[in-house]
């Protein structure tokens, strides 16, 4: 049984209320940090913990905090990124729905460490129930003296505001989020300057994912070193994984970093294997933006080592045979799923969500979507595959924000690993409308040939 | 001297120049001039915050600075990246940059109607120049291009979204010259479009400048629409005492008629000073203006076919007596015009 830090008390009835949350040891971190630690002590613990951003990029949180500029007389802000909209990721929603106080507690401690007097929680507009829940939790915390002026007699003041977003995927990009928070159109800013220097209203700002902020609580409670004991190498602590797709038990799981992927998929403690006795065909390991991998590459790296749930191990092999941890949106596909259709669906999403600011992403995502639609509906040509490759290559790395890369990688990986399925779709347009390509050589282990 | 500003040394395609700190790579390249200047479709030096969007000015930074010589991992937008001391930049010497630029031009063109034969901007269109220099001969795009209805923004300006490349220049112009936020972008992604606040007629006195800043034919002057091809007109610099703007303009003559008035543009097609709507739309008579001199037009431009520069006979490859005779005759004729 893996250790749980965030979801330890998830099954306690009423854990979403302040009373039960405190009964279970909640807000210990606030008391500890505000009464016995200086802001730099908290920062030092977070650095020691090796916590990496849980929103997708995996940038060390402690390092991000230490980059925050601290000029005199200028306010600093902490912004929590709750604009979770990556297809396949739903961990932040789960956390905010069931243990809202974990986020509030993390916000108080993190704001204290950064010296922020005003903090914002930006929540995606579609998550109206969660916005209500967080607002209630803030009210509860305020009534208990955990927020507002002079928190717990420490002399530290903090106000937390919830801002509903308009429901754009792009507003999950930190600078677009800041623009949206300022009341403007959610276009990503051109960096530099980075938010740590000039973020919200031109002031130094840190933007962190919901899960990263919640993870600060156990770090402060038990110390950074204790947190760093969980996990392997530079992937420390626990991670929430949103498992979906053709699994026996899809849902949100808290795993210790370093869990083998195979165990995560097949063990009864976690997903319990592939539903309906089917076989695994492919996995998107970290939300729709990361490269899709066929079954044989997701369970083992190209060197034949077991692939683990860590930032490093998932990325092993680079783009050629690896993927990325991303935001932890684990989507499993069984033998009945069509990779072409899935890739088209992802691209349709990116086309719809591209902000339209820079040309390669604006035009390229639409072009890829049209080509993939053509292949999927049986009117594609073989040259389309090479053209798709060329388009994604020219989008990747040439855009203002990572949305361009996120749109390019799934297409690149699908073509790289499932090219024959694309070719089969094009060569057999009639058949492709009635049945799927199936497992082919991606199954692991391969079915022995019966002659 | 202590308060002397330290200059940064930067090399672009092997040409070294010293510039003030805070200069962008693009502006450093423009100081050098010539072929190494990256093309820029969205950057406009007079508009704060512009640039970074079209991605045509991407360059490779092969050495970050003297202190930190690591190269930058990705291509950067030269219009928004400031130079560091000892920075080395590759533009036309980097195949990676040229390939990326080719990709960007292709992307810009896939939804462009390519209706140059009926477009008023043809001849002074930045997208035409760009695709001529960096584009491919054939399109690989086999789908219907997106199309929009033409919209009149007020009685003098027409918006033709089909041609728009969403450079945001007009948005910045409207925001910065007119104070009110009435002109902006609606929708997202490849269905984004320029729009005014519920199709408002923009009546600000400086709104005509959106025509000048538009790099393509998306925003056109309705008083000039379909009047003439730009290469048949002759630009002349002129000025007048204008109460609201500098009054320094370029008049575009067809015969003795002023058929269009624009701001004075430099070699990168950026206006020197923004002009008011009265100068632009109302004063279309030679009597309204004090003429200065013919506008200096680059001999690379199609407008220069009106021979403001000394006539250069095309190089004669074959000995052709008849052609030589014709050239001499034409040279004599053009000498007279000077």
Automatic annotation (TrEMBL), chain A:
Cofactor section: [4Fe-4S] cluster; FMN
Catalyses which reaction(s): a quinone + NADH + 5 H(+)(in) = a quinol + NAD(+) + 4 H(+)(out)
Pfam families, per the entry: Complex1_51K, NADH_4Fe-4S
Record-annotated NADH-ubiquinone oxidoreductase 51kDa subunit iron-sulphur binding domain positions: 340-385
Gene Ontology process terms (BP): cellular respiration
Gene3D superfamilies linked: 3.10.20.600, 6.10.250.1450, NADH-ubiquinone oxidoreductase 51kDa subunit (3.40.50.11540), NADH-ubiquinone oxidoreductase 51kDa subunit, iron-sulphur binding domain (1.20.1440.230)
InterPro entries with a match to the protein in the record: ComplexI_51kDa_subunit (IPR050837), NADH-UbQ_OxRdtase_51kDa_CS (IPR001949), NADH-UbQ_OxRdtase_suF (IPR011537), Nuo51_FMN-bd (IPR011538), Nuo51_FMN-bd_sf (IPR037225), Nuop51_4Fe4S-bd (IPR019575), Nuop51_4Fe4S-bd_sf (IPR037207)
Signal peptide annotation: none
Keywords: 4Fe-4S, Flavoprotein, FMN, Iron, Iron-sulfur, Metal-binding, NAD, Oxidoreductase, Quinone, Translocase
EC number: 7.1.1.-
Gene Ontology molecular function, alphabetical: 4 iron, 4 sulfur cluster binding; FMN binding; metal ion binding; NAD binding; NADH dehydrogenase (ubiquinone) activity; NADH dehydrogenase activity; quinone binding
Cited SUPFAM superfamilies: Nqo1 FMN-binding domain-like (SSF142019), Nqo1 middle domain-like (SSF142984), Nqo1C-terminal domain-like (SSF140490)
Root EC class: translocase
Protein family per UniProt: Belongs to the complex I 51 kDa subunit family.
Task performed by this protein: NDH-1 shuttles electrons from NADH, via FMN and iron-sulfur (Fe-S) centers, to quinones in the respiratory chain.
Protein name: NADH-quinone oxidoreductase subunit F
Organism, as annotated: Sphingobacterium humi
Lineage of the organism: Bacteria, Pseudomonadati, Bacteroidota, Sphingobacteriia, Sphingobacteriales
Gene this chain is encoded by: nuoF
From TrEMBL, chain B:
Chief localisation class: membrane
Domain of life according to the entry: Bacteria
Domain named 4Fe-4S His(Cys)3-ligated-type: residues: 96-135
Protein name as catalogued: 2Fe-2S iron-sulfur cluster binding domain-containing protein
CDD domains: fer2
Family: Belongs to the complex I 75 kDa subunit family.
MF GO annotations: 2 iron, 2 sulfur cluster binding; 4 iron, 4 sulfur cluster binding; metal ion binding; oxidoreductase activity
An annotated GO cellular component: membrane
Gene3D superfamilies recorded: 3.10.20.740, 3.30.70.20
Subcellular location as annotated: Membrane
Provenance organism: Sphingobacterium humi
UniProt entry tagged with the keyword Repeat: no
Swiss-Prot/TrEMBL cofactor(s): [2Fe-2S] cluster; [4Fe-4S] cluster
PANTHER family: NADH-QUINONE OXIDOREDUCTASE SUBUNIT G, RESPIRATORY NITRATE REDUCTASE
Keyword vocabulary terms for this entry: 2Fe-2S, 4Fe-4S, Iron, Iron-sulfur, Membrane, Metal-binding, NAD, Translocase
Domain 2Fe-2S ferredoxin-type: 6-95
